[in-house]
Every structure is written in structure tokens, then in C-alpha cells.
Amino acid sequence: MKRIIAPSVLSADFGNLERDIKMLDASQAEWVHIDVMDGVFVPNISFGFPVMKPIRKATSKVLDVHLMITEPEKYVARFVEAGADYVTFHYEATEKIQECIDLIRKAGAKVGISIKPGTEPNVLDEWLDQLDLILVMSVEPGFGGQKFMPSSIAKCEYLDAKRRERGLNDIIIEVDGGISAANSRLLFDAGAEALVAGSSVFGAESPEQAIIDMLNS
Ligand code: DX5
Ligand code: ZN
User: Fold this and answer.
1) Count of CB atoms within 10 A of residue 22's CB?
2) Is the CB of 64 under 6 A from ligand 1?
3) Residues spanned by the domain of 18
4) Can you give the pLDDT at residue 94?
5) Is-catalytic flag, 35?
6) Total structural domains within the chain
7) Residue among 38, 64, 160, 176 flagged as catalytic
């Protein structure tokens, strides 16, 4: 099984964004996680298209865009144009799931769906064969630095069992929120292959070492 760390740019220093992204580019992190918030789907606003450009310029790593926005169908294609490799939208944010999947795929990126802590993973059963990634939220989306919710572990186990049962082994299970070297092992053991980490990476004395510690947990 793969082990991928996706540091969240939300916790970077925006006055030194290029420096922070170049640090990630030289680190063991394979992905860079980009949290887009609209102030409607979540009670916070982060950033949008203009910030994608300097990030894409500063790194060749996989850009993993997490859209916490309503009606994602209106914007997914533009995120692909802006350089996203994966575009993940929320199951709870739209009635037009098939349209979102088709738009992301047609624009040339990989497709992810995310579920909030209150959403059961079986809602994704019918979409599994069209997905490249499932993002399990282990905090309420909206803010970095929150406490990890252990209910996410059973969701990973459920999704891992489902993907094996259906022979869909290429789907990546990703978990986001409150992750550090203290719980990364539990999640990898439960079937997660990509872990998002914001404050535990950027708040560490050595972000590079914090990434290595999670990978080696
Ligand atoms: C929360 C975001 C997360 C967040 C993770 O809405 O989706 O990606 O930045 O931050 P930490 O690792 O600090 O919980
Ligand atoms: Zn995120």
C-alpha cells in the first residue's frame, strides 16, 4: 500500500508562500493539499484561483485540491485549468454529483469526493467505480488545527473493504484533519494511503522531519 503525505497550504505562511511551497517541493511529501473555502459551505474563507498560479509555479508535486464550496460544478473545470491534478468536491455540497465527476474528468484531472464527519461512507457506494480518490474528513471542514475525530478510522476500514470487494484497488483513501505522527499509523493501518496534515507540518520546528515521522510511523 502507498503512503502519501499531503501538507495543507492552509497552514503555510502566505507572506512567504513561494518559500514554503519550495520547502515542500524538496521534502518527502508527494502531494500538496490546497483547501478552497467559500464562506457558505463552511464558515470560513480561504483563497481561490489566483493562489493556484504561484503554487503550481513553485512545485511539480501533485496538486490535491479540496473544494469546500457550494455548487462545485460551477468551478471544478477552472481548478483543473489552474493546475490541479486531483479535484475533490464535497458529497454534501451539490445535487449534481455526476456532472461534477464528468466535468473534472473531461478537463483532464483525477476525481475525488469528500465526506464530512456526519456523513456515512456508504453514500459513496454507487459512485465508487467512477472515483480516483475518497477524502474522509476527520474534523468538521473549515479550519486547521482542530482535534482528530477517531470515527474516521472505521470509515477508512469500511471503504478499504468495499474497494477490495469491488476490485477497485486504485482508489486512494485520503484522510484530512488533526493528523500528526501520533495517529498516522492508525490511519495507514486502516487502509488510508494519503494523509493531509496542516498544523503538524507547518507548526513543527522541522516540517521536513514531521513529514518523515508520519511516513515512518
Ligand atoms: C480543514 C481542511 C484541512 C486542514 C487540516 O477544513 O480541509 O485540510 O487544513 O489542518 P490540520 O492538519 O491542522 O487539522
Ligand atoms: Zn483539506
Assistant:
1) 13
2) no
3) 4-215
4) 98
5) yes
6) 1
7) 176
Active-site position among 20, 35, 64, 132: 35
pLDDT tens digits, 144-184: 999 999 999 999 999 999 999 999 999 999 999 999 999 99
Q: Rounded to whole angstroms, how far apart are CA atoms 139 and 110? A: 24
Among the atoms of ligand 1, which is closest to the Cα of residue 37?
A: 6
Ligand 1: does its nearest atom lie under 6 Å from the Cβ of 198? Answer: yes
Give residue 130's pLDDT. Answer: 98
Residues 124 and 107: their CA atoms lie apart, in Å, by 22
- pTM metric for this prediction: 0.98
Active site residue 13: no
Contacts of 100 (CB under 8 A, 6+ apart): 72, 73, 76, 89, 94, 111
Q: How far is the CA of 205 from the centre of ligand 2 (A)?
A: 22
What DSSP letter does each residue of 37-52 carry, written as one string? Answer: EBSSSSS-B---HHHH
CATH number, domain of 67, equals 3.20.20.70
Q: Is the separation of the CB atoms in 66 and 37 below 8 Å?
A: no
- Segment 35-59 shows an average pLDDT of 97
User: 188: helix, coil or strand?
Assistant: helix
One-letter amino acid at 33 equals: H
Dihedral angle computed from the Cα positions of residues 209, 210, 214 and 217, in that order, rounded to the nearest 10 degrees? 60
The DSSP string of 113-155 is EEE-TTS-GGGGGGGGGG-SEEEEESS-TT-SSPPP-THHHHH
